[in-house]
Amino acid sequence: MELAWYALLGLFFATYLVLGGYDYGVGLLLARRGPAPGSRTTLTALGPFFLGNEVWLVAAVGILFGAFPRLEGELLAGLYPAVLAALTGVVLVTAGVQLRSRPAAATARARWDRLVVVGCVLAALGWGAVLAGLLQGVPLGADGHVVGAGHLATPFVAAAGLALLALVAVHGATFLTLRLPAAEAPALARLATGLVPAALVAVASATVLGLLSDRVRAAVARPAVAVLLPLALVAALLTARAALRRGRAGTAFAATATALALPAPLIGAALWPRILVSTTDPAASLTVAEAAASRPTLALLGWLALPLVPALLGFQAMCWWVFRGRIDGRAPVYW
Amino acid sequence: MDPLLLARLQFATTTSIHFLFVAVTLGLVTLLVGLQTAGYLTGKPAYERLTRFWGQLYVINYVLGIATGIVMEFQFGLNWSGLSRYVGNVFGAPLAIETLVAFFLESTFLGMWIFGWHRLRRGVHLALLWGVAVTAYASAFWIMVANAWLQNPVGYEVRDGVAHLTDFGALLTNPTFGMAFGHVISASLVTGGLLMAAVSAWHLLRRTTDYALFRTSLRLGLVTAALAVTTLQGFGFAQFGPVGQLQPTKFGGGPDRDALVADWTARFGPGDWEPPVLSDVGLGFMILIGFTLGAVWLLLPLLWRDWIIRLKAPLWLILLGLPLPFVAMLLGWIAREVGRQPWAAYGLLPTAQAVSPVSPGLMLTSLIGFSLLLGALAVTNWMLLARHAARGAHDPALGRPPAPDTDAHHQPVFV
Questions:
Q1: Interface predicted TM-score (ipTM)
Q2: Where are the domains of chain B?
Q3: Does domain A11-298 have CATH number 3.20.20?
Q4: B414 has a pLDDT exceeding 60
Q5: CB contact at 8 A, A167 and A203
Q6: Do A149 and B64 touch (CB under 8 A)?
């Protein structure tokens, strides 16, 4: 029962990183100066998907609260600064993208664009730091609380934040290659392939720093799974680059989406059966089973989720299907 | 600085801003459903124009509802980890249901509704708005179930110091839930109706174009506000009985309160087990505003032969009355929430035990940062709302028909 809920939590958070990931990647690219495509066209590519993407995060935190209440409290409070950064970023992107085109003046729109860029950077760095914070463990005391926040200030956390930022940028550029009018595709594909080396370097340095970190080595229960993560990321990035060079944006997007889907499940598997590993007192570590809500709560939520999750996926799929394909001059413009 | 005080201030700030926006969201979406359904059934273009104009204001307002809502959801874990640790098994369930059943679908539907104009079949597009409205109500329902449980914990048993769910049905029949839910929905309808009437009144006073359009929305807004203000008062006064019985410390003195305080002192040790002295002062002002808003009924006879527009003075009154429901909403929530102090879950979990053991510095950073961020966003949002309301209904960006695609080489029409 706990495992099923843990898998569902992983599914929702991983899907958020994939879908929210291209939102943030596209938002980052608003920082580019120069000719077409303009900001409005870029945001039109997100268009109908934007509101449906961030709800995966809200639902993931809802599942975290309902099915893993103890983890919710200790995880968010224990990684306070990282969560704060991510949350600020999410709020800025949410408000910025939706309000950006409401003022008519170009200067006001440019200011909103800068806010969106800042928000995307914060969100990517923040979620990267949260994932790294899980991998390197937290100073969880015998009373079950995390002590202090200084434990996050490590090179590994910084490198992981930057790695997620780079991955998100590649993902966003690939999404635009797939979604903007065909005339824009070659230039965007060049941009995406140009970002791939940066992402490779970021992933490699995070990997090296992770391997060198005593805390990461101590926290990871399954080193093979943990090492699989960077290897899979590199493979996905190289696949994306090769596909972009051949003009196969769909394959490239599948590859970058895989890259963003992998961290959550692989980190969960590498730490299993624990989720919050204590760096100070191994006995105080929190396992998934301990973190889960008690049986009656999980049973109640389970009966609800059984018909609900297919419906949620169905309506999201409807949104993707209705608005599929490249945008053109007739695409509805609102953001 | 005391982390408890900082965490409480942050929750109060975020929640207050949240309510100012979600009340408008709930009220307006109900009116929009009426407008778009009327347009679908009658085929009159006036209704489509009304839907686009009010829909655009609705969508702008919705942004801050999401932004503050996300911050609130995270705040439970960030600042109130004791709440999830001790009562998460029970309190977490309605919140999880809210995110999955309600919010997830609401946002997905809204995205398709915004971009579905002229692209989806009209029936499908209308169904999406119905979906948005139904899930918005479901959202309020589950949030109120969760809040009512904190007011009056039911359907649980404590084992090893942690609350476990025993009877989920008890959460739904909680005496602090039903009337409060009706009260909040009515308040939202009053707010949405009055907002619609006030914006229309402004246009009618300024004699802008679209007289007929704003005449329609003035009438719709006023009638909605009048009907809802009556249920608002009813659901409000109906709460005094059960709340006074279940929370004897909320409205001041009496032997029940003294007995309860003595019981808590015996079980939880000596302490200040009564809410702050001024916690129910706002309630009096809220009731006063509630009666004042009831005067909307006096304006209804003036709808005959448009006397309300010809006399002008009633339109000014409606404009002046617009802040009232917002003030009343905040006062009502303060009375409900501060009145249950010092308990996070009444009689079960003291607020001081629910707060996260986070350093005051971090908590202060978060309080100042998010208050400034959300405050600035709220003010900007209201300015945008005012500007778009003043601009009138001649061509809102929402639902603008796409330009004919004349250029095969794609010169985008995006401005």
A1: 0.95
A2: 3-391
A3: no
A4: no
A5: yes
A6: no
